């Protein structure tokens, strides 16, 4: 065959593949998915009041493991999605309002394009901008944090490049249902290994177009409360330590944004300990559990063999008003003058056909998150709590008669969970 015939033969194959949509390695330029990832150290450099326990009034006395904020920015055809994971307790009140406004304004985002989340570590600084009620050290920390997050997200935008993505799931026993029943039938905070718990470890793999691993976004349902009010060392606890382990194993430039799933009634297997056990030969429980979770994340990440370019981005954001729970007259006097409804933020996003993120400004109990996953039209649905605010515990209706801490402390009227599930699923189906 002469050169002219070879040229015509190759051209015919090229045209045939183009018409059939099977042209290799070209991709649809209109469906180009880009991502940028960045990480910043947000460890306090001064003593701070720690989040999560009203009985703990002392300042922190040191740092066991550093705290980080991790940002992933996705972009496709001008549509953006900014997801921020931070080794903190929660963003609420004036802090959320201030931070979201500054981020949305700086990067010209829609409300629906920002997931500002915390892993709910109870060994991280309390965030406050309230000069009348907040601790001065914590206010200094919070003000500096705002600028750090802006710099972090800006760095992620500067790192935008074409990527391939894939997703997979594993399972971990780190989290356990904590609603333990006493002999008299009452519910206490403890360990209930037979109660419902979402064991799924959900991982999204992000690699560059040449296959270089960039990030492993993962979601798991557990409180970060292996450490209790007796601990005065700053720590990311189980969730934060797991992310550091993943990054250590998968490479120095690899970033592992971690998110907390529906875990309102889920605690680590070893919970609320006074500190890090330094007994010879003993592995401190937060380190043990964080490593166990991290190993499953790495295993799932490595088992995701197929990744694909492209992926349409769609987002939505809604604030729904849920009826505030009516309490007996004279009970909880501080709540008597509050509004009759409680706002709950729901943020939803999709990337491609198989992956969705749905974030809630509540501590959602695990049964609710599992119901949302089951009803979602997406193969992989990241249910993320402590996202874009904090509104309190959200229990399923069936637990109100049992009582227990989550039910006693919830601001929501019975049946509120059904409203949240219906709205969440509607938003997911609208994105699909």
Summarize the structure.
By secondary structure, this protein is α/β, with parallel strands linked by helices.
Give an overview of the whole structure.
- The chain has 432 residues and is of the alpha/beta class.
- The protein has one domain.
- The chain is 28% helix and 27% strand.
- It is built from 8 helices and 21 strands.
- The strands form 6 sheets. Strands 1, 3, 4, 5, 6, 10, 11, 13 and 15 form a 9-stranded mixed β-sheet that branches.
- The chain is globular.
- The termini are far apart.
- The N terminus is likely disordered.
Any descriptors?
432 residues, alpha/beta, 9-stranded mixed beta sheet, 4-stranded mixed beta sheet, 8 helices, disordered N terminus
What is the secondary structure topology, with strand pairs?
Elements: H1 3-20, E1 34-41, E2 62-63, E3 68-76, E4 79-86, H2 93-106, E5 114-118, H3 136-158, E6 161-171, E7 175-177, E8 179-181, E9 187-189, E10 200-208, E11 213-220, E12 233-234, H4 237-250, E13 258-260, E14 266-268, H5 285-303, E15 308-309, E16 313-323, E17 341-351, E18 355-360, E19 363-364, H6 366-375, E20 380-384, E21 393-394, H7 405-409, H8 416-431
Parallel strand pairs: 2-12, 4-5, 11-13, 18-20, 19-21
Antiparallel strand pairs: 1-3, 1-6, 3-4, 6-10, 6-15, 7-14, 8-9, 10-11, 16-17, 17-18
């Amino acid at each position: 065959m002469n050169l002219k015939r070879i040229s015509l033969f190759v051209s015919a194959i090229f045209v045939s593949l183009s018409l059939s949509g099977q042209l290799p390695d070209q991709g649809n330029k209109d469906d180009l998915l880009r991502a940028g990832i960045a990480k910043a150290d947000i460890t306090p450099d001064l003593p701070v009041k720690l989040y999560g326990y009203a009985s703990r009034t002392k300042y922190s006395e040191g740092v066991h493991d550093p705290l980080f904020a991790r940002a992933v920015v996705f972009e496709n055809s001008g549509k953006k999605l900014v997801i921020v994971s931070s080794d903190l307790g929660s963003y609420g009140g004036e802090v959320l309002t201030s931070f979201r406004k500054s981020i949305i304004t700086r990067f010209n985002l829609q409300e629906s394009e920002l997931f500002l989340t915390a892993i709910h570590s109870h060994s991280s600084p309390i965030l406050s901008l309230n000069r009348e009620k907040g601790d001065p050290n914590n206010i200094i920390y919070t003000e500096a944090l705002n600028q750090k997050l802006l710099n972090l997200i800006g760095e992620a935008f500067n790192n935008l490049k074409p990527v391939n993505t894939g997703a997979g799931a594993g399972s971990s026993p780190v989290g356990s249902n904590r609603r333990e029943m006493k002999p008299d039938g009452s519910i206490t905070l403890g360990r209930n290994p037979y109660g419902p718990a979402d064991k799924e470890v959900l991982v999204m793999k992000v690699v560059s177009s040449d296959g270089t691993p960039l990030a492993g976004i993962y979601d798991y349902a557990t409180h970060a409360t292996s450490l209790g009010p007796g601990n005065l060392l700053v720590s990311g606890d189980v969730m934060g330590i797991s992310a550091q382990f993943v990054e250590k194993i998968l490479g120095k430039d690899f970033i592992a944004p971690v998110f907390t799933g529906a875990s309102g009634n889920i605690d680590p297997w070893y919970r609320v300990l006074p500190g890090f056990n330094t007994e010879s030969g003993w592995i401190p429980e937060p380190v043990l559990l964080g490593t166990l979770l991290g190993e499953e994340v790495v295993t799932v990440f490595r088992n995701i063999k197929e990744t694909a370019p492209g992926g349409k981005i769609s987002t939505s954001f809604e604030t729904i008003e849920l009826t505030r729970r009516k309490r007996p007259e004279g009970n909880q006097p501080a709540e008597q003058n509050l509004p009759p409804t409680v706002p709950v933020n729901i943020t939803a996003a999709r990337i491609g056909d198989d992956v969705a993120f749905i974030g809630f400004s509540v501590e959602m109990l695990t049964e609710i998150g599992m119901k949302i996953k089951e009803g979602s039209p997406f193969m992989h649905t990241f249910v993320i709590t402590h996202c874009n605010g904090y509104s309190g515990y959200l229990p399923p209706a069936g637990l109100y008669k049992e009582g227990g801490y989550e039910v006693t402390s919830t601001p929501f009227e019975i049946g509120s969970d059904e409203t949240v599930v219906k709205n969440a699923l509607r938003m997911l189906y609208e994105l699909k």
